[in-house]
Design a protein that fits this description.
The protein contains eight helices and 28 strands. Helix 1 crosses helix 7 and helix 4 packs parallel to helix 7. The chain is elongated, with a radius of gyration of 32 Å. A hairpin with a 4-residue loop joins strand 24 and strand 25. The chain folds into four domains: 161 residues, Molybdenum Cofactor Biosythetic Enzyme, Chain A (3-Layer(aba) Sandwich), CATH 3.40.980; 58 residues, Alpha-Beta Complex (Molybdopterin biosynthesis moea protein, domain 2); 88 residues, Molybdopterin biosynthesis moeA protein, domain 3, CATH 2.170.190; 71 residues, MoeA, C-terminal, domain IV (Beta-clip). Strands 16-13-17-21-20-18 form a six-stranded mixed β-sheet, with helices on both faces. A five-stranded mixed β-sheet has the order 8-5-7-6-9, with no helix packed on it. By secondary structure, it is of the alpha/beta class. Helix content is 19%, strand content 30%. The structure holds adenosine monophosphate and magnesium ion.
Length: 409
């Protein structure tokens, strides 16, 4: 198609670059641990205290002086009076007198003078006095203060993602907040006078609106937040009203539809077809997803995607997902690429980068194109787990060729 046009089209790489520059990171913010989950740290975390905080018992048992248990055997236990009971949470400072034992629970502070813990399993569990059946060596079953973290150590680094374990560590160090790169806030708008919401009756000539729920889900999957979703008919006033209502609360606006070459292209019409209003419309040398646009609305970045559902989601994958993830500081903004062997010969239009939906079988390392290349075949995308990326200059890829495919799982 339009071989002569291709020279005027923007390359996929160039459009990725421009979208990447348009979507900007939010300034760092200090948020509760709960809100920090999954985000990227903007600052290092330096331990304000040591972990363990104090010497404590690693076992339920008895705190003793190791030498007092030296002769103990199962046949000839050593008997010691139990002079204190130390559950977890006891805060007074205790001293162990020679020739005595303190009953102690896991995590409780080891009394001064004690050099070992005898596990309860090696005793009769006595309360007034205890029979110790096994001798203890000095230091046994004592967790020393600072052996996990010394105060002042950098324990988490800027750029690291906040995992459940990172949250646990921050809490253990007494932090109730972390400084992170906040999630991007995205407004999703579908356009088209033929669109009605699922769950309502369908009139002749109407179709169910599917892009907004799909793209909102894709936005959330990147770790970003959906400010709102909305649908406007092919009516500039309606479309503008949605922008006015929500755009100021968004870091990014994503629209679908209304950017092709026909009449009633509401997104193009709203911004002036020549890009006079800060949004430029371009053809990108790709299939699906050729008509694209981007710019700013009152300072907020906007990316305008084509309306066909497959084009919309593939364009989101190729342009928006990596840019959003980069803006949120994720160390892995791109989908992982997997080497796989193509099971059948596929063809691709000259001069366009083709993204084919595919099934990757990771047990055999085979990849099979899945469904036709046209951009309305949503059914196939819904069950695909990979994208085949066929370069612009390639018109045919033979069965048996090894390729790198995008792993969508
Ligand atoms: P457009 O880009 O507006 O010309 O739309 C291209 C095709 O995608 C048309 O067949 C539309 O009916 C369809 N389409 C556009 N937007 C949506 C949507 N939100 N949900 C489902 N189909 C859509
Ligand atoms: Mg339309």
């Amino acid at each position: 198609m339009a071989g002569t046009d291709n020279g005027r089209m923007r390359s996929v790489d160039e459009h990725q670059r421009v979208v990447g520059q348009t979507i900007r990171a939010r300034p760092a913010a200090t948020v509760s641990l709960t809100d920090a989950q999954g985000l990227v740290l903007a600052d290092d975390v330096v331990a304000r205290l040591s972990l363990p905080v104090f010497d404590n018992s690693a076992m339920d048992g008895y705190a003793v002086r190791a030498e007092d248990t030296a002769p103990a055997t199962p046949e000839h236990p050593v008997v010691l009076p139990v002079t204190e009971d130390i559950p977890s949470g006891r805060i007074d400072t205790l001293t162990l007198q020679p020739g005595t034992a303190h009953r102690i629970m896991t995590g409780a502070p080891v009394p001064t003078g004690a050099t070992a813990i005898v596990p309860v399993e090696a005793t009769d569990g006595g309360l007034g006095s205890v029979q110790i059946r096994q001798h203890a060596t000095a230091g046994k079953h004592i967790r020393r203060a600072g052996e996990d973290v010394a105060a002042g150590t950098t324990v988490l680094q800027a750029g690291q993602r906040v995992t459940p374990a990172a949250l646990g560590l921050a809490a253990a160090l007494g932090q109730s907040e972390l400084t992170v790169i906040p999630p991007q806030r995205v407004l999703v708008i579908s356009t088209g006078s033929e669109l009605v919401s699922p769950g309502t009756p369908l009139q002749p000539g109407h179709i169910y609106e599917s892009n907004s729920v799909m793209l909102a889900a894709a936005v959330r999957e990147t770790g970003a937040v959906v400010v709102a979703t909305g649908t406007a008919g092919d009516d500039v006033a309606q479309f503008r009203a949605l922008l006015e209502k929500y755009a100021s609360d968004a870091d990014l606006i994503v629209t679908t539809g209304g950017v092709s070459a026909g009449a009633y292209e509401v997104v193009k019409d709203a911004f002036g077809r020549e890009g006079a209003q800060g949004v430029e419309f371009v053809k990108v040398a790709m299939q699906p997803g050729m008509p694209q646009g981007l710019g700013h609305v009152s300072g907020t970045p906007i990316v305008t995607l084509p309306g066909n559902p497959v084009s919309a989601l593939v364009s989101f994958e190729v342009f928006i997902r990596p840019a959003l993830r980069r803006a949120m500081g994720f160390p892995d903004p791109q989908r992982p690429l997997r080497a796989a062997v193509l099971t059948e010969t596929v063809t691709s239009p000259r001069g366009k980068r083709q993204f084919r939906r595919a099934i990757l079988d990771s047990s055999t390392g085979h990849v099979t194109s899945y469904g036709p290349p046209a951009s309305h075949h949503l059914r196939w995308l819904a069950s695909a787990n990979a994208l085949l990326e066929i370069p612009e200059h390639v018109e045919e890829v033979a069965a048996g060729t090894e390729l790198l495919v995008w792993d969508l799982t």
